[in-house]
Automatic annotation (TrEMBL):
<keyword id="KW-0408">Iron</keyword>
<dbReference type="InterPro" id="IPR000823">
    <property type="entry name" value="Peroxidase_pln"/>
</dbReference>
<keyword id="KW-0479">Metal-binding</keyword>
<keyword id="KW-0376">Hydrogen peroxide</keyword>
<dbReference type="GO" id="GO:0046872">
    <property type="term" value="F:metal ion binding"/>
</dbReference>
<feature type="binding site">
    <location>
        <position position="251"/>
    </location>
    <ligand>
        <name>Ca(2+) 2</name>
    </ligand>
</feature>
<dbReference type="Pfam" id="PF00141">
    <property type="entry name" value="peroxidase"/>
</dbReference>
<keyword id="KW-0349">Heme</keyword>
<comment type="similarity">
    <text>Belongs to the peroxidase family. Classical plant (class III) peroxidase subfamily.</text>
</comment>
<feature type="binding site">
    <location>
        <position position="74"/>
    </location>
    <ligand>
        <name>Ca(2+) 1</name>
    </ligand>
</feature>
<dbReference type="InterPro" id="IPR019793">
    <property type="entry name" value="Peroxidases_heam-ligand_BS"/>
</dbReference>
<keyword id="KW-0732">Signal</keyword>
<keyword id="KW-0575">Peroxidase</keyword>
<keyword id="KW-0325">Glycoprotein</keyword>
<dbReference type="GO" id="GO:0006979">
    <property type="term" value="P:response to oxidative stress"/>
</dbReference>
<feature type="signal peptide">
    <location>
        <begin position="1"/>
        <end position="26"/>
    </location>
</feature>
<feature type="binding site">
    <location>
        <position position="248"/>
    </location>
    <ligand>
        <name>Ca(2+) 2</name>
    </ligand>
</feature>
């Protein structure tokens, strides 16, 4: 049977199955803090500038934090909560415990915002604004950030390992996770482009480099050198699981479209990334990868639009029971 027909059939049934379980209508505006905390965007930008200047990898850390927050129970700051006697943190779930950093950066920004506008700006909004600024500071596009989120008083350890895509998943397994959030296949391909500034742990790419990496990558000295470098970072027999490598080795600290160009060469570090170009079911995703590899402006525009769309995944319950946390790590008492 034609792979294109199979993919369309599969996606149709996924959409019908999930219906409207994804993103709810956001209650967010661009001027939410215009009278209550007009300097919040300046404060976040200044602190992110210092953070990224001290270590460019902080940009990817904050962007990943935002992504993981939104995919668990909406963009509600639940990812920032620590374990307590009554709450099991999302941070400690398998998908997060070794991959998330940047919590201290958000704490510091929150402290400055609280000193200027106490009890006004949610941690969820601070994280969303910081993610936008992180992208800009490493060469990526600008977008306006709607605000007005409340901080959740709950977290969901269980949803963390079911909602978040993993590095070894197939394309047909990952797409439904985006559709469930109200994000399209186009959104997915654009948002995965954030890996242009991301790092991957050996544990998450070992199966790729000792699997089909060699068969998909181009046969040239540069590709061979990269392959050998990955094998030196990540040995085959279980050691070095926390060793890391850039997912875009060409421009690891610059937000650009070279990540997609590497996928065209079969050099995606993660199986889930390379599947967007190499999977037999990737008819639509393959064309988008080629488009963004050739046209950085098209990638930037779609990434901006998709980031706003992802940021608008709200936790409707938090608008009723949520709060503005004084400390992003703990619910107010």
């Amino acid at each position: 049977m034609n792979p294109s027909f199979l993919l369309k059939f599969f996606l149709l049934h996924i959409v019908l199955f999930f219906g409207f379980l994804g993103a709810t209508e956001p209650q967010l505006t661009l001027d939410y803090y215009a009278s209550t905390c007009p300097t919040v965007f300046d404060i976040v930008r200044k602190e992110m500038e210092c953070s990224v200047l001290s270590n460019p990898r902080n940009a990817a850390s904050i962007l990943r934090l935002h992504f993981h927050d939104c995919f668990i129970q909406g963009c509600d700051g639940s990812i920032l909560l620590d374990d307590t006697i009554t709450l099991k943190s999302e941070k400690t779930a398998a998908a997060n415990i070794h991959s998330l950093k940047g919590f201290g950066i958000i704490d510091q920004i929150k402290n400055f915002v609280e000193s200027e506008c106490p009890g006004v700006v949610s941690c969820a909004d601070i994280l969303t604004i910081a993610a936008r600024d992180a992208v800009i500071l490493v060469g990526g596009p600008y977008w306006d950030v709607p605000v007005g989120r409340k901080d959740s008083v709950t977290a969901s350890f269980e949803l963390t390992d079911t909602n978040l895509p993993t590095s070894d998943e197939s394309l047909v397994s990952i797409i439904p996770k985006f559709l469930y959030q109200g994000l399209s296949v186009t959104d997915m391909v654009a948002l995965v482009g954030s890996h242009t500034i991301g790092m991957a742990r050996c544990q998450n790419f070992r199966s790729r480099i000792y699997g089909d990496y060699e068969s998909t990558s181009a046969k040239n000295p540069i590709s061979d050198n990269q392959f050998n470098n990955l094998k030196s970072i990540c040995p085959p027999n279980g050691g070095g699981k926390n060793n890391i490598t850039a997912m875009d080795y060409v421009t690891p600290n610059l937000f650009d479209n070279s990540f997609y160009q590497l996928l065209l060469k079969g050099e995606g570090v993660l199986n889930s990334d390379q599947e967007m170009y190499s999977s037999v079911f990737g008819i639509a995703t393959r064309e988008l990868v080629k488009k963004y590899a050739a046209d950085s402006l098209a990638f930037f525009q779609q990434f901006s639009d998709s980031m706003v769309k992802m940021g608008n995944i709200t936790n409707s319950e938090s608008f009723v029971t949520g709060e503005v946390r004084k400390n992003c790590r703990f619910v107010n008492t």
